[in-house]
Design goal:
Strand content: 5-15%
Order of helices and strands: HHHHHHHHEEEEHEEEE
Oligomer: single chain
Distance between the termini: 69 Å
Strand order of the largest sheet: 1-2-3-4
Structural class: alpha+beta
Helix content: 40-55%
Shape: rod-shaped
Mean pLDDT: 58
Number of helices: 9
Length: 288
DNA sequence: TTGTGTTTTATTGCCTCC
DNA sequence: GGAGGCAATAAAACACAA
C-alpha cells in the first residue's frame, strides 16, 4: 500500500516545531541530528530543523531507514493513554504525537502493536482459565469413575449374597423363607435415608444412598416395595443395568409395571421389577 | 565478542465500514 | 475508493549467556 509505505514518508506528515511546548523534550534528543542516521522519524525532525543544507539532507534522507525505540517516558505516556482508551481517534492521535514529539503514524502503530500484545495476554489468561477448568472437571470425572467402581463392587457383593440366599433357600424345605431377600433388605435399608410422598395407590419414598445417589422407592398399598430409579441419574441406570444382568441368577422375580407413577398394566411398560413375589415388605429395583 | 532468543517497531496485504 | 483495523511478518534493537 503505497500510501503507508516507507516510514511515515507518505502518511500523516507531521512535523513538530522546535519551539513546541512538548513535555517530552528529553525524547527530542532521540530525534536529534546525531541520531538521524539511526532513526526514521528523526529524519523528518532533522529535516525540519536543518533545511538549509540540501546535500546533507539528501545524503541522510536516502540512507536506508532504521527503526528506533521510544524512550521510557514516551512509552509510559502512551501506556497511560492506552489504559484510558485503547482505541485511537484521529484528534487524540495528533494530540499524543504533538505531546510526545512523534509522528502520528508512530502513535497509531504503537497503539496497533499494543492492542495486539494486549490481545495475546488476554488469550493467555483465557487459556489459563480453561486449563484450570479442565483440570477440575478431570478430577471430578476421576472421582466419579472411582465412585462408579465402588458402586459396581457393591452391587456385585449384594448379588453374591442374593445368590447365596437363593442357594440356601433351595437347599432347605421352607419355600416361604427362601423367597425372602433379607440380606438385600437389611444391607440396602441401613444405607439410605428416606423421605415420603404420596402417589396414587402407592406411597413414594425418595431415598438417598450414602454415596449420594438418589432414587424413588414405591411402596404399594399392600405393603410391597419397589424401587423406581430417577431417569436423570446415570450412575443408577448403570447400577440397574448391572442388576438386570444378574436377573437370570435370581429365581422368581416378577415384573409389575408403572405408568406415570401409578400402578397399571403389568405388561404395558418395558421395565423390570427386581423384587420377589409374595413378600410383605420386599425391596426391589425398577429397571428400564 | 558473538551467537541466540526475545521484544519492539514498522510494513504489507487483506478486510470492513462509511 | 479512502481510512483505519488486524494478522502476519520482517527487521532492528536489546538482553544475556557462553
Amino acid at each position: 500500500m503505497a500510501a503507508r509505505s516507507f516510514l511515515y514518508g507518505g502518511d500523516d506528515p507531521f512535523i513538530v516545531p522546535r519551539s513546541s511546548s512538548s513535555s517530552f523534550h528529553g525524547s527530542r534528543s532521540m530525534l536529534s541530528f546525531e541520531d538521524r542516521g539511526n532513526g526514521a522519524s528523526g529524519g523528518q525532525f532533522w529535516r525540519s530543523e536543518d533545511n538549509g543544507d540540501d546535500d546533507e539532507y539528501d545524503e541522510y534522507f536516502h540512507q536506508p531507514e532504521k527503526k528506533r525505540r521510544l524512550t521510557a517516558d514516551q512509552v509510559r505516556f502512551l501506556e497511560k493513554s492506552f489504559v484510558s482508551d485503547n482505541k485511537l481517534e484521529p484528534e487524540r492521535k495528533i494530540q499524543l504525537a504533538k505531546e510526545l514529539g512523534l509522528q502520528p503514524r508512530q502513535v497509531a502503530i504503537w497503539f496497533q502493536n499494543r492492542r495486539a500484545r494486549w490481545k495475546n495476554k488476554q488469550l493467555e489468561k483465557d487459556y489459563d482459565v480453561l486449563q484450570e477448568s479442565y483440570n477440575k472437571l478431570k478430577a471430578n470425572y476421576e472421582n466419579l469413575v472411582k465412585e462408579k467402581e465402588k458402586l459396581k463392587s457393591m452391587v456385585e457383593e449384594l448379588s453374591d449374597k442374593m445368590m447365596l440366599q437363593e442357594k440356601g433357600a433351595s437347599d432347605s424345605s421352607s419355600t416361604k423363607s427362601a423367597s425372602q431377600p433379607h440380606v438385600l433388605e437389611e444391607d440396602v435399608s441401613k444405607n439410605m435415608n428416606t423421605g415420603y410422598g404420596q402417589n396414587g395407590n402407592f406411597i413414594e419414598k425418595t431415598v438417598e444412598f450414602d454415596n449420594g445417589v438418589h432414587s424413588s422407592l414405591i411402596e404399594r398399598v399392600d405393603s410391597s416395595y419397589v424401587f423406581e430409579p430417577e431417569q436423570s441419574d446415570g450412575s443408577l441406570d448403570e447400577e440397574n443395568n448391572l442388576v438386570k444382568m444378574l436377573l437370570p441368577c435370581v429365581d422368581g422375580y416378577t415384573s409389575p409395571k408403572i405408568t406415570n407413577g401409578d400402578y397399571t398394566d403389568p405388561h404395558s411398560v418395558n421395565s423390570y421389577y427386581l423384587g420377589f413375589p409374595g413378600d410383605e415388605q420386599a425391596f426391589g429395583f425398577w429397571s428400564y
